Amino acid sequence: CRHSICLGFHTIPVAEGRNDVFSAIYTHFPIAPEIVIYDFACQLAPYSLVREAQYFAKTRFLIDELHAQGHTRCGRACFASNAMLYDDRVRAANTSAAECGNNGLGRVRKSVSYMTYGHAVQYTKAYLDVWNRCKIRRITSTN
């Protein structure tokens, strides 16, 4: 989302893996998105296509601009910066929106670490509700 609106979240007890992103997309979107911009898209694409080829048949997986430098063995077709040259939808996207959201969650990370699981989820949801509301108000006040 180019507006940095959080559409959902789930907790990850250990390092994020391809299945976390795959599952989030597959379970929350009845139709696969046309474009997925993700820091490890070069691995997410084959992972997703092997598991649900029909669902992801028309999806393009692109590596966000922030993480592209570390992908020296990936083809240029994987980079969002390359797709921006010819696709207005990618050009309009904030390829670092997820990183902005992760940075915002850093504000509550310490507090959440002292909570029970249930309270941490409720607190995080409330925080993200306020985050989204602030983003929406900023968008509507400038239009």
Identify low-pLDDT runs.
Answer: none
Q: What is the multimeric organization of the chains shown?
A: single chain
pLDDT averaged residue by residue: 81
Strand residues, percent: 5-15%
Structural class: mainly alpha
Any overview of this molecule?
Strand 1 (35-38), helix 2 and strand 2 form a beta-alpha-beta unit. This protein has a two-stranded parallel ribbon with strand order 1-2. The chain is globular, with a radius of gyration of 16 Å. 55% of the residues lie in helices and 6% in strands. With 143 residues, the chain is mainly α. The longest helix is centred in the C-terminal third of the chain and has 26 residues, at 117-142. The protein contains seven helices and two strands, in the order H-E-H-E-H-H-H-H-H.
Kindly list the characteristics that best describe this protein.
143 residues; mainly alpha; two-stranded parallel sheet; 55% helix
What does the secondary structure layout of this molecule look like, with pairings?
Blueprint: H1 18-28, E1 35-38, H2 41-51, E2 60-63, H3 65-68, H4 80-83, H5 88-92, H6 97-113, H7 117-142
Parallel strand pairs: 1-2
Helix pairs in contact: 1-2, 6-7
